[in-house]
User: Fold these one by one.
Assistant:
Number 1:
Amino acid sequence: MRYYRTQGLLFLVPILVIVGIFYGMIVWDFVVALTGWQGLQATWKFVGLYHFSRLFGLQRFWVNLGNNLRWLLFFIAPTVFVGFLLAYLLNNLGRGEKILWQIFLFPMSLSFIITGVLWAWMYDPSSGLINSLLRFIGVNTSRLGWIALPQTAIYCMILAAFWQYLGFSLVIYLGAIKGIPYEMVEAAKMDGASHLTVAFRVIFPNVGHATLICTTMLAITTVKVFDLVWVMTRGGPGVSTEVLPYLMYRLTFDSRDIGMGAATSIVILGFSAVMVIPYSLWALKKWVRV
Amino acid sequence: MKRFIVWFVMVLLVAGGMGVIWGQEKEAEFIIFHYWTAGGEKEAIDALFELYTKRNPGVKIVENPVAGGGGETMLAVLMSNLAAGIPPDSFQDHQGNQQKDYIDAGYLEAVDDIWQATNFEARINPMWVKTLKFGGHVYSVPINAHRTNWLWYNKKMLDELGIKAPESYDDLLAACQKIKEAKPEVSPLALGTREKVWSTYLYDMVLLTTGGPDFYEKANTGRIDFRNDPTFRQAMERYAALIPYIYPWHATKSWDEAGALLKTGEAAMYWMGDWILGYYLAIGMEPEVDFSVTAIPGDIWMGHADTFPLPKGAPHPNNARDWILMCTTPEAQKAFNLIKGSVTIVNDVPADVYPDPYRKRSAQDLATLRAVCDGFHGGMITPAFGSELMDILTRFLVDKDVNAAITSIAEAAERTKLAEACSWFWE
């Protein structure tokens, strides 16, 4: 028994080293956040929590944090809800199902970069597809700026992400629904339950694990969303669509304020930990019990 | 976190790669980082490589040896390479505060002897000396001069409306009003702030036209009281006055897409550096028929240079020094700039070598007029302040709130210690 354990540990060494480096970098990042590192050369001058207090004093930081929360709110719920609805409908569709879910899943195979470029083209107020179509049917588009307007830009961006990730939640739910014993649904139908009741009273409570996967994965996506912002608006107009990872990049590589950048990344780390760790614990508990 | 890991692995890989290179012949290579990869730019740097190979037949030129090192990522890769102590032999840089960060970090070596041997200082506009000399030393040689106080305009439209090419801010504003009245569907002034930096170009223009070159230099090095300076307030008000005439969806356009608005007739005028000329020629616009250009103000040359510095610990120092020496020669300057669309830094290349009237004028003006460096790319302001400034200005372009913009700029200047960081300029 002892023999096997040593050997097992030996086989684990490569991954342990990588994980070790990974956590080492987090520690290093935290140390950097406590130093006054500005410019290109590392300056190991201890400044304590100065960067954090400066960061929290930036109006821009709160705009960014608000945008991250907006992403959480307006991206996850619709994607999960519509994904579930579509999965339920497709499951009842019969033959067309396979073709349709391929179509819905297709955007998932694109990267955020491509999605961003595509949607930025469509949103373009003067020559984009959306305004061109609207003009064609006689709508006055002179005030419809989409991503050029600070009030609407972030929602337009979230819609693009919704388009991309809908297929993901659809497939997860479809798989989960197929795993439910059919007798349960039949029994409900026999009792005269409508489609709506079946969907939300019978099926939804039984696909909780799918909801967990979806929300967790989507939450992780929203916390690290950077590419879409970079491609579609670069945080503009002004800072209205900036999110925390974007701020981290700007502070580190544009302002060359490495300490502040590191402090931002620590905040992002904390933010995602608060969201993901309770979820994972809950999920693990559930799966272990089952 | 993922980003850091990526950098770390990248640095390791590069270190490994460089180790292999070092293991081979010592001075047989010349390693250079640059991001001239687009059409026109690529040919320009290739012309320099050709000249260099003629001078040094045995030397192999290695461009951007890091995968993904081209374009926007070059700076980040360069930064990690310099920090890891594995510099290239030279790299593409600007001047002023853009370069000063490298000097402060101790990454660059002085090339005073090359400047002296080639009498370089006497051959260039004094402004370049001012923005390239740090504590009495120079660390690089500039290769080209891009003019940025150019107003490009749709010639047909302005002729049709009987508007003379504007030569001052007041002319510009009057022209904007006239165009808006005659053609309400046209945006008088094109702008693209997808890259936010272009909002600072208009800022430079209003500073320069409101307070003159001395005020401009003071303002951009943080030597004015942003909150209370009446000239600065006036400049911001003049910026605000232009906003209603700017293309409303500027946030969705990149600099070239915004430039194309002149071709489609959606906009009439465009404040942009001379690199747009190459783009206009490429999309089939006829000079002096479809478009023309005017300088505002006409008696100042504003712009910036691309430079080649000498990194400390360059793996092939002799090759690097010869590259820099070569870049001081009129032949190299001419070969590069004729293709690149810019003009030579050195005044001893005659202005009539350029095929178009715009660069002829730019070269003449640079040799004879007072010159100033533009704010962001010219390194008058620091990258840290510039980064905040463009965020403030792109917000200002939307809300037009002069007071808020002034307060934010003052705060950003204090936070990034602009005056302190720019004190080298006044030494």
Number 2:
Amino acid sequence: MAEIVLQSISHSYEAKRGALGEPAPGRPAPTYALRDVELRWRDGGAYALLGPSGCGKTTLLGIISGLLQPTRGRVYYGDKDVTALSSRERNIAQVFQFPVIYDTMTVRQNLAFPLRNRGLGAAEIDRRVGHIAEILELTEVLPMRATRLTADQKQILALGRGLVRQDVAAILFDEPLTVIDPHRKWLLRRKLKEIHKQFHHTLIYVTHDQTEALTFADEVVVMQHGSVLARGTPEDLFRRPAHTYVGYFIGSPGMNVMPCEALRQAGGARARVGAYEIPLPATFEATALGGGLELGIRPEHIVVLGEAEAGGLPVSVTAVEDHGRFRIVSGRLGDHRVKIRIGQASAPESPAGSPAVAVGGTVRVRFQPEHICLYRDGRIVAPIVASIVASIVASGGSSAGEGPP
Amino acid sequence: MIEKTRSNKAWLLILPMTIVVAFSAIVPLMTVVNYSVQDILGPNTKVYVGFEWFRKVLRDPELHAAFLRQLLFSFSVLALELPLGLGISLVMPRRGWAVSASLVVLALPLLIPWNVVGTIWQIFGRTDIGMGGAALVKLGLHYNYTADRVDAWLTVLVMDVWHWTPLIALLCYSGLRAIPPAYYQAAAIDGASGWSIFRYIQLPKLKNVLVIAILLRFMDSFMIYTEPFVVTGGGPGNSTTFLSQFLTRLAVGQFDLGPAAAFSLIYFLFILVFCYVFYTVMNRVGQG
């Protein structure tokens, strides 16, 4: 086991290896699946690689595992340059989107297969297979044909083929819960967490499902169009998304983003959105203010004011979706769409009673200043969070771009 | 509860299909059944003879010989074409222009009418003007498919392999292409050798395709008629007279409709039973 480092990885499925750079005259530039990715995966960490379909996350996984050779850049496991090594030599394990099992073998033979291929003795193979089967609760089905397992058991078996090799550098998951029934998903996810606690393997988990990513990982890497947009703990990504896209992508519904202008006034900093002014926290004084900004606020952080409360911004309600424990209100603030998440009963912030929220009506709302983020060109300028700065530095400044001065 | 709507008019919907099947299969088959239990002496004179023809046909030593010859031929064809077709599909290109090129080349023998295939090989094997036959003779071999039983057999066999191996190769190729890449990737990660990949991934995944290929080739080769008829005419002697040719001689040559009908039914039942048993066994094997 070792730290995994990706150094300026670029990949194009069209270009020849090492041939990236200037395209030949008269030929179109190759399209990149990945572009200058810099990442460092701590040994023993649980990571999620989150992004929409086609953002390059599976490509990145293939490059880590050695199934793909990057067009440019280097992959290190610890100090060792493994860029040119095959999957087998890199000694990683991978669980695929649908369960890959060897149909004609029993569960026991499936688990023993990677060990047999590496020439281990029969006694040692038996011992390890028995041990892992015990942990994965597969002992009872060991003599069964692998095809007779349920989908989630098959996926556990696929994971087991990685775990029997005790020295794997990392276990990679490529959307492993896609074909699993919803009610078995959480079981499998819990099992993964247990295994992580027990073995301390580095786990890298690719998904487009934010719930999976946020519940599984210690740290989430968000990708878009072949580059890393942001990385951070689930908490960071939710509270202070480094990029408006991350704000949209994480959270349900995503962050409200609207163009604004930040002004410094006698009463403190304010953001002007259309005809309305919204107070900003005092800490924003120090940061670059001005025009051309975007204001981001989570639907959870907009409070609907009660009858008795004065002030607030008028939002005309266009739709209300009932989600059981909460409601999502869609509305318009001036020209801008806004989504608000409110509780089913009266919000604690408005003791005056449940505000009347009806389609066609207008509610008055307040943006909680401490949860407002400001963006310029999609990247966060305020507030500045220490961990985000750290991640920008760690990833060579390519992920979050130029920070504020 | 939702009540299901019941209407007997639905029977009308399957009527067209029933009529088509009746005329294409049931009526002709019943005519054969009718012939098989009668002795037809002339256009209007026929006698009911019961199972007499079946008894006679089953005891006919010439038919026994043709039947064994047929079995040997069909199994030889399968034994040659399956490994060869599978092997070709494994080495066929996977991407680029070579895919289309190899597919077209492979499909060519399948596109040639059967009697033309026979004619091609009949000429190809001739020792005076045929490229193959003349070349063998030039090499000093005593090759003559019109006189030598073994040569005749080999010629018909090689012709069938040439004609139908591409079908198996194409079936296997499509089966191989349908295997998701994740299986190969998992095998690479598990450190599997090339043989292991074939044994544990490709072969199991090709099982269904191979079952279809075996059934198709068995049925087709068991009913082979045109090509050997054109090349050897069943000779020399009876050495390449397979079942259909035997049947044709009985029905059309000698106009023994009764025995020919009885034999047709036995022939039909044998193929049916063989395919059923084979298919069932393969399905059982699949379920473990």
